[in-house]
Amino acid sequence: GCVWSVGFSPNGEQIVSGGDDGTVRVWDAESGTQSMELAGHDGRVLSVGFSPDGLKIVSGGEDGTVRIWDVASGKQAAQLEGNNGSVRSVGFSPDGAKLVSGGADGIVHIWDAASRQLTAALVGHAGTVLSVGFSPDGAQVVSGGEDSTVRVWDVASGAQVAQLAGHEGWVLSVGFSPDGRQIVSGGDDST
User: Fold this and answer.
1) Count of beta carbons in the 10 Å neighbourhood of residue 85
2) Which stretch of DSSP H or E encloses residue 114?
3) How many CA atoms lie within 13 A of 179 on its CB side?
4) Against a cut of 0.85, is the pTM above it?
5) DSSP type of residue 154
6) What is the rounded distance in angstroms from the CA atom of residue 175 to the CA atom of residue 102?
């Protein structure tokens, strides 16, 4: 089946993947051998990523859950519920204190990584949120969705600070530049 999402650990020694079989897999980057299989999602795992310290993995899936995994033990540390429908994109803030998720409910969810509590539900997209990510300083989140828009949100206030138009189809991927001054997006309109 498909592998929907991959990412390196911060030290580059491990790779995480999520796919059609509902598992999160951890691989040794040098040898390419699988070192861990994390099972728990009911359905495809659509997004995965390591925490900045490399000690945790976050995953989001078709089952509507965001899960946090402990890399050392290979056990699920938390299951975050609050998304209504599949979770298409997840990620840690640069300091590891927060998580962001977006999915079929059209809402960008901000979570406290330590307490596992939902701290903000950012409403504005019309349709599925397909990609989310934090700015390098963690103060903003960018999101892209089926509504052909890229939106920028202030994490502290939950306010939408920008709506960027220009795509003529779904916005499939978004991200900030390393200095946080620019945003890049890609869509199904070939741009």
Assistant:
1) 14
2) none
3) 2
4) yes
5) E
6) 14
